[in-house]
Each structure stands twice: as structure tokens, then as C-alpha cells.
Write a structure and sequence with these properties.
With 320 residues, the protein is an alpha/beta fold. Helices cover 43% and strands 14% of the residues. It has 14 helices and 11 strands.
């Protein structure tokens, strides 16, 4: 029912990608998502090339399904990781924090599908011209580093301007969001925060628990004054950081204060002084369960909602 150009391009069962979250998207999580019919993605973050090589090889022991690696283009190891991706036969690359332009030709020579994350129409159009295979269009609802436009507004604008497939990201965690993305013209979705709250995710249980407990307004943005806005859950650290921003503390001091905070949250489970990157959809997530249940639940809910809408359109049911 949900066969799209994305499922065909990536050779996956469902058009559902897992976000390449630094320190969170390990080989275990990526393998579980791929085994469940989606596309699991190892998040390279600022890890060295050899660390990512080992992650790739560990993943291959757990699944023979397609998977990807996310590269942060600002990472000092980006060049090394591109080389490792080519030599290890990784089928898909997603990119963020910069343009993959200078690597496109090299990756294509090794039959790697290239799917950058974009926050604007102009960047989407430029990357299409440069030859990428698809686009992840991410709205400001997402966790972590974000742009300014919402998923609802941005996705259809990009869809109208490009011919390659679009994957919607930001603010999606269930079958309703999945269907909404498809109705906007996307041919797949990417989820990050929902997959943090999976049993296979190795992030600290305290991190997962904070997302499950989060309310609708608990994921807010710091760093706007620096030009690098980040969405994370409210805690002592983010409140303190925001207060320093309002006082006009220099960028260098803020950057130094931020160093190591994600590791503190993900690995040590410090929910007050760590950086709990999470999207606005956190308020909708109420459980921690296996990736297969998450993905299959989304598909089943989407199917049920299609039946509901068909009944409504045929005059057999009212909405409300």
C-alpha cells in the first residue's frame, strides 16, 4: 500500500527512515530499524572514521538489509568517513550540517545513494541540480539542530520545486503524521525522537524517560543568538544557557559551556545538566517499545485512518 519512489530507491519495505542522531544512532538501533523494514542509519556525528568503520561492520553482522550512514559535513572526519563508506559498501548516505556537494561524484561512483537534510527550498533546488538522489526536508519541529520553517509549510513548497523524491522530517511519530506527510507530497518520513524511545536504542534510560514524561511545550530552542539553534528538552542546563544568551554572553563562552552536554545526557543519563535533544513530538510519545512495533504500528494506524477517511468521504461517518 505504501510503495513509493523511496521504497524503490532504497529497496526497503516501508518508507520510514531513522534519523542519524549523533551518539544515539548506533549500529544496534540502525540494524533494528532496517530489520523491521525501514532504513536504519548510523549517526557519525564527530566520531572518527575508524569508529564508524567498526559500527558498519557490527551492523552487517546483525542484518543484511539496506542501511545508511549520516555524515555531519562540518565534522573534521567527514573526508575519512566518505572514504570508509565507499570502501565498506554502504548503500545510502544522509548528510547534515553542510552541503555534500564536493563528495557527490565520488559517492556516486561507488553506487551510494545520497540524501541530504535540507531546511529551505533554495538549498533543496541547488542540491537537486548537483545530483543528489532524494531530499530529507526537515521542519523546525525536529530535535537537535534546526531551521526556521515548519514541516507543514516547508514540505509542500519543496515538493512543488523539485522532481526527486522528498522525505518529510520533524514532528512525526505515528500513523497520523505519516499520512499527513504523504498528503503534503512526501514519499517517506524520517523520525528521530520516536526511535530514541525504542528498546534497541542504547541511549540512557533517563534520556528516554525524560521524553516519555515531556509535555507539549517542553522541547524548546536555545542557541538562536549564535546562529546555531538547537531544540532540546527543558532542564537546568537549557534554562541557564538561555539566560546567558539573553544577557549577551559571547559565542565562544556559550560554545564552551555546551561542549560534552549531549554525551552527558545520552551516556550518563544526566537529565538536568545534559543536552536532551528531542523534537516537539515528544509530548505525543508515551512508551518505549521495539523498533518493529513502532514501524508496524505506524503502518497499521495509517491504514486504519485511510479506512476512516474513505468512510467519511463516502458519507458513512462524520469527523469529530
Amino acid at each position: 500500500m505504501f510503495h513509493t519512489r523511496i521504497t524503490e530507491l532504497l529497496n526497503i519495505k516501508y518508507p520510514i527512515l531513522q534519523g542519524g542522531m549523533a551518539r544515539v544512532a548506533t549500529y544496534r538501533l540502525a540494524a533494528a530499524v532496517s530489520e523491521a523494514g525501514g532504513l536504519g542509519i548510523i549517526g557519525a556525528g564527530n566520531a572518527s572514521g575508524e569508529v564508524i568503520r567498526e559500527e558498519i561492520r557490527k551492523l552487517k553482522k546483525l542484518t543484511d538489509k539496506p542501511f545508511g550512514v549520516n555524515i555531519m559535513m562540518l565534522s573534521p572526519y567527514a573526508e575519512d568517513i566518505v572514504g570508509i563508506i565507499c570502501s565498506e559498501g554502504v548503500p545510502v548516505v544522509t548528510t547534515g550540517a553542510g552541503s555534500p556537494g564536493k563528495y557527490i561524484e565520488r559517492l556516486k561512483k561507488h553506487n551510494v545513494k545520497i540524501i541530504p537534510v535540507v531546511p529551505t527550498v533554495s538549498l533543496a533546488k541547488r542540491l537537486e541540480r548537483e545530483g543528489v538522489d532524494a531530499l530529507i526536508v526537515e521542519g523546525t519541529e525536529a530535535g537537535g539542530h534546526i531551521g526556521e520553517l515548519s514541516t507543514m509549510a516547508l514540505v509542500p513548497q519543496v515538493v512543488d520545486e523539485v522532481k526527486i523524491p522528498v522525505i518529510a522530517a520533524g514532528g512525526i511519530a505515528d500513523g497520523r503524521g505519516f499520512l499527513a506527510a504523504l498528503s503534503l507530497g512526501a514519499e517517506g518520513i524520517q523520525m528521530g525522537t520516536r526511535f530514541v524511545c525504542s528498546t534497541e536504542c542504547t541511549a540512557h534510560q533517563n534520556y528516554k524517560g525524560a521524553i516519555v514524561k515531556a509535555k507539549d511545550r517542553d522541547a524548546f530552542v536555545t542557541g538562536r543568538s549564535t546562529g546555531y539553534p538547537v531544540r532540546a528538552l527543558k532542564n537546568k542546563f537549557t534554562r541557564h544557557f538561555l539566560g546567558l544568551e539573553k544577557k549577551g554572553v559571547p559565542f565562544e563562552e556559550l560554545e564552551a559551556l555546551n561542549a560534552g552536554r549531549l554525551r552527558l545526557a545520552v551516556e550518563e543519563g544526566d537529565v538536568e545538566q545534559g543536552l536532551l535533544m528531542a523534537g516537539q513530538i515528544s509530548g505525543l510519545i508515551r512508551d518505549i517499545k521495539p523498533c518493529r512495533e513502532i514501524i508496524e504500528g505506524i503502518i497499521e494506524e495509517a491504514k486504519e485512518n485511510i479506512k476512516y477517511l474513505e468512510a467519511f468521504l463516502n458519507g458513512g461517518k462524520s469527523i469529530g
